[in-house]
Specification:
26 helices; transport; SLC13/DASS family transporter; repeat; Alpha-Beta Plaits; RCK_C_sf; 4-stranded antiparallel beta sheet; alpha+beta; transmembrane helix; 5-stranded antiparallel beta sheet; 601 residues
Length: 601
């Protein structure tokens, strides 16, 4: 062993310790490793910074932005709601509908984002149908993980594997090169969960609503404005566009409550809809050019005044002993007194009058206010309010949803048909999402998980150093002595297994960077194509479903599903063995001309 190899192993050991112990954030650890490689002379300046301009880093950042655009335009939420409606009431049907749909969503977006989006939807679905959340959330999380195998761009591990293959002179992978494997794994995962549902724990059936459901009942009023795109269109179309976070309470026409109007009745300019909406829906309603919050249309000019700043929405809680308690919003004449408009009301329990203006305030009521920041600064000091905080709702730019979908489709086509290199295609797609205002620039930057981006940029040079110092060749040589006479299928299973175990304590990206060069050297020493060896290693890093700490999606469902560590082992160990066999078999078939079916070839 040379001095360079010894130095590299010391740096690697220190990095692994920090990754596993989590004493520092993963991105900080990656940067420390990068600095150590430069200071010790194992890498030069250009090699050390190559990760920041690498294809994986660019594609990951672009995918985060495109995912943000799909979320900001309400596409992902709408798909999630469709899944909820299509799932029916039986447990088996919910799993059969949810898993393929979630997998498809995860194929072009970040799987953790998909899991987080589906979590409240599955919670509501379970509560409505009297099902145990623990029987639904684990299959959903598994589907999100398996869905990342449907395309090259959905998991950083596959992008890093592709980058490694190109550095070795191999052809590299296309966007859909691993899709056959992904389809097989999704089908196997769905069949496994349907046939072995009895393994899943049955917990949380009688659990009370979680916190994320408690602020979905803001009472507000909508006005169909003059020249609205909704005018003459039936109410059902508006309800479909706004999804299940919007519920009609009443319909005013010519200032009279109409009980003869229903979902098929056409909307007319000037109609006022009395509704209950979620925070996101309420913010979205204000941003829709065809409808407006009724209170703003009536009193907005008075509230605008001469204050500074762009009008915004905030929340205020009515304090104990407040002078507002027992008085209606109409009596308070809020817009004249405080130069702000009450556009929504949330009440934990109890009746709320159909008309917002007639609602008599109670202690603990949460008011949604609209006005200028300068006025709110004055209002925050008023003893009638317990607190004044930013409004939690995020507007969905639903009118741009078709545009966002079109941009995603063109981006994928440009990458698949090689009109543009894959990184450039996705970068152009991200720029188009921002330029067309599907998502604003500030939110686009917030969508990028900087930790993931920096970690990828930092660990790529680690793989380069492993190759340059000969450490990869040294380790591959040791492994070759053990597996030299083994069938190629067994070798692929070994690589999958090592990666699957290592990814329980490391990220999938770090696992691929460490094991990828070893897989390449092993393949070359056996005079075989390196692609299946690297792909099988990446699959082990991505889809080994063994513990709750192996995937961030598993951590998200751990609490809501009331899972224990042993639940994941009981479900995951047999499943991971099955996935390993399918992954090794499919990679051999795709790249080493192995048989597709047992007993053939």
């Amino acid at each position: 062993m040379t001095l360079q190899q010894l130095t590299f192993l010391l740096i690697l050991g220190g990095g692994l310790y920090l990754f596993i112990s989590e004493r520092l954030r993963v991105d900080v650890t990656a940067m420390l490793i990068l600095m150590a490689l430069v200071v010790t002379g194992l890498l030069n300046e250009q090699q050390a910074l190559s990760g920041f301009s690498s294809e994986p880093a660019i594609i990951v950042a672009a995918v985060f932005v495109i995912s943000g655009g799909l979320g900001a335009t309400g596409i992902t939420e709408h798909i999630g709601q469709w899944i909820g409606r299509a799932s029916g009431k039986s447990e088996a049907r919910v799993i059969a509908v949810t898993m393929p749909a979630v997998a498809i969503m995860a194929s072009f977006t970040h799987h953790v984002m998909v899991t987080a989006m589906m979590l409240p939807i599955m919670g509501r679905l379970a509560k409505t149908n009297g099902l145990a959340p623990s029987r639904l959330l684990m299959p959903m999380s598994l589907a999100a993980s398996l869905g990342t195998c449907l395309t090259l761009v959905s998991a950083p591990a596959f992008l890093l594997a592709n980058n490694l293959l190109k550095r070795t002179g191999a052809e590299g992978l296309g966007v859909f090169s691993i899709t056959p494997i992904g389809i097989a794994l999704v089908l196997i995962g769905m069949a496994y969960m349907l046939l072995t549902r009895w393994i899943l724990p049955k917990r949380g059936v009688d659990a009370e609503d979680d916190g994320y459901l408690r602020l979905d009942r803001y009472r507000t009023e909508l006005l169909i404005v003059e020249g609205s795109r909704w005018s003459t269109r039936p109410l059902a179309e508006l309800e479909k566009a706004l999804g299940d976070k919007f519920r009609m309470v009443g319909w005013l026409r010519d200032n009279k409550l109409r009980r003869d109007l229903g979902a098929s009745s056409p909307l007319i300019s000037g109609d006022v809809l009395l509704v209950e909406a979620s925070a996101d829906a309420l913010a979205s309603l204000h941003d829709d050019a065809g409808i407006d919050l009724h209170a703003i249309s009536r009193f907005g000019t008075r509230a605008m005044g001469d204050g500074d700043g762009k009008p915004q929405l905030v929340q205020a809680v009515v304090a104990p002993g407040s002078e507002f308690i027992g008085r209606s919003i109409r009596e308070l004449d809020f817009s004249h007194r405080f130069k702000a408009v009450i556009v929504g009301l949330w009440r934990r329990q109890g009746h709320v009058a159909p008309r917002l203006a007639d609602a008599r305030l109670r202690e603990g009521d949460l008011l949604v206010l609209w006005g200028r920041p300068g006025r709110f600064a004055e209002l925050a000091t008023h003893h009638g309010f317990l607190m004044l905080v930013p409004f939690a709702g995020e507007a969905k730019r639903r009118v741009r949803a078709p545009l966002a979908l079109s941009i995603l489709a063109v981006t994928v086509l440009a990458a698949v048909l090689e009109w543009l290199p894959v990184p450039l295609a996705f970068l152009c797609g991200a720029v188009a999402i921002v330029a067309t205002r599907c998502v604003d620039i500030g939110q686009a930057y917030r969508e990028i998980d900087v930790r993931v981006f920096v970690m990828i940029a930092g660990v790529i040079p680690l793989g380069i150093a492993m190759e340059q110092t000969g450490t990869a060749q040294l380790m591959a040589s040791g492994l070759r002595h053990v597996v030299a006479d083994w069938p190629v299928l067994m070798i692929l299973l070994v690589l999958f297994s090592i990666a699957g175990l290592l990814t329980q304590v490391l990220s999938d990206s770090a696992t691929v960077v460490l094991l990828g060069p070893i897989a390449v050297e092993l393949a070359q020493s056996l005079t075989m194509e390196p692609t299946p060896f690297v792909v099988c290693t990446a699959l082990g890093a991505v889809v080994a479903f063994l513990t709750p700490i192996g995937h961030h999606g598993n951590l998200l469902i751990l609490g809501p599903g009331q899972y224990r560590f042993g639940d994941f082992l009981r479900v995951g160990v047999p499943l991971t063995v099955l996935i390993a066999l399918v992954s090794a078999w499919m990679t051999r078939w795709l790249w080493l001309d192995g048989p597709l079916l047992p007993g053939l070839g």
